[in-house]
Amino acid sequence: MGASPLPAPHLSRQGKEDEDESFDMPPAWVERIEISPEAFETRCPNGKKVIQYKRAKLEKWAPYVNTNGLVSRLTSYEDLECTKILEVKEWFQNREDMLELRHVNKITGLIIDSFKPGHSQALRVHSYTSMQPERDRVMEFYETARVDGLIKREETAKTMTEYYQGRPDFLSYRHVDFGPRVKKTALNSAESNPRPVVKITERFLRNPEKPADEDVAERVFMILDERIQLRYHCREDHITASKREFLRRTEVDSKGNKIIMTPDMCISFEVEPTEHTKKLLYQYEAMMKLKDEEKLSRHQAWESELEVLEILKLREEEEAAHALTISIYDTKRNEKSKEYREAMERVMHEEHLRQMEAQLDYLAPFLAQLPPGEKLTRWQAVRLKDECLSDFKQRLIDKANLIQARFEKVQPGPGQGRGP
């Protein structure tokens, strides 16, 4: 037999190094750290932490510590002593109204509320100085969540401007000028005493399916002056655009008849005039169509005022309630889920007791033949009694037969001995 080969030098060194690097960890001299879920959620003592900076203070809260969902507040100061506040930023979580951030400028009084997607009115940003209607405010919306494609609405005491996107009628801009109320009441609102509309300006995007000379770019309804101004889109090979102005006069002729349409009631400038646009019938039909569109625009402006009132009322209710959303998996805070779980456990416990009683109830197989929940009649009770007695007698007979059969099986037959 040959001698066994010696291990290679580098392998032996590698084995020694592995042995040297391995060591046993000593047992810990401290107890196991245990943190309860409640303490883990608070994140800091009493769920609040304050960090002081130069001309600023940052406050942090754990979720659900504040009833309004406030989790963070950053206050900026003007002086080093932190006595004059410049602005305050507040962050919220778990709000049902989807409020995420509030920026308050203490100098100008401007408040900017930012919302996450999911608000009932598709509100994204609300900038205001007062929650009273007909004040300076700006509302921005999630246009994909709205049917009308409204992106932004700016409102002052005398004007309202709306911006749209993705509408089938290519409307992109509407500006409404309001006049002073003729009838003054104690409580003026768009619902009880709406502001009179003086002027409506609408702008449209280019519709590629129409010629540029027939595609309206801007439409102005001058209601007090009874004039309608149209400006069309400019063609690519032109430097000027066509314009047209209609005068809605309600005069009468010498015979007392109402003047419907005259050549001087339509003033137009056309880059390339055509014969059909000069006819009174074409101009009359265009003016009648514009009158209907003017009524529709005034109605939409009134609806916008009502929507602003509805949003302001909803925001006041949301701020008063400041309800928070609770996950269905949070069994500690979700009272509805807790009540539902307890009710289900109670029902399951009652069902278990009912099953246990049914197993011990000898009448259960017979009662199952009858309609559940109904009171037994005398005839049904007598019949149930007879069936129970008959079944009991049959069970006694079967038991006696079984005993007799086993006894005969054990006893030896005739002529057979018991054995030595």
From TrEMBL:
<feature type="region of interest" description="Disordered">
    <location>
        <begin position="1"/>
        <end position="24"/>
    </location>
</feature>
<protein>
    <submittedName>
        <fullName>Dynein regulatory complex subunit 7</fullName>
    </submittedName>
</protein>
<dbReference type="Pfam" id="PF24667">
    <property type="entry name" value="MORN_DRC7"/>
</dbReference>
<feature type="domain" description="Dynein regulatory complex subunit 7 C-terminal">
    <location>
        <begin position="374"/>
        <end position="411"/>
    </location>
</feature>
<feature type="domain" description="Dynein regulatory complex subunit 7 MORN">
    <location>
        <begin position="45"/>
        <end position="327"/>
    </location>
</feature>
<dbReference type="Pfam" id="PF24671">
    <property type="entry name" value="DRC7_C"/>
</dbReference>
<keyword id="KW-0963">Cytoplasm</keyword>
<dbReference type="InterPro" id="IPR056291">
    <property type="entry name" value="MORN_DRC7"/>
</dbReference>
<dbReference type="GO" id="GO:0005856">
    <property type="term" value="C:cytoskeleton"/>
</dbReference>
<dbReference type="InterPro" id="IPR056292">
    <property type="entry name" value="DRC7_C"/>
</dbReference>
<keyword id="KW-0206">Cytoskeleton</keyword>
<dbReference type="InterPro" id="IPR033551">
    <property type="entry name" value="DRC7/lobo"/>
</dbReference>
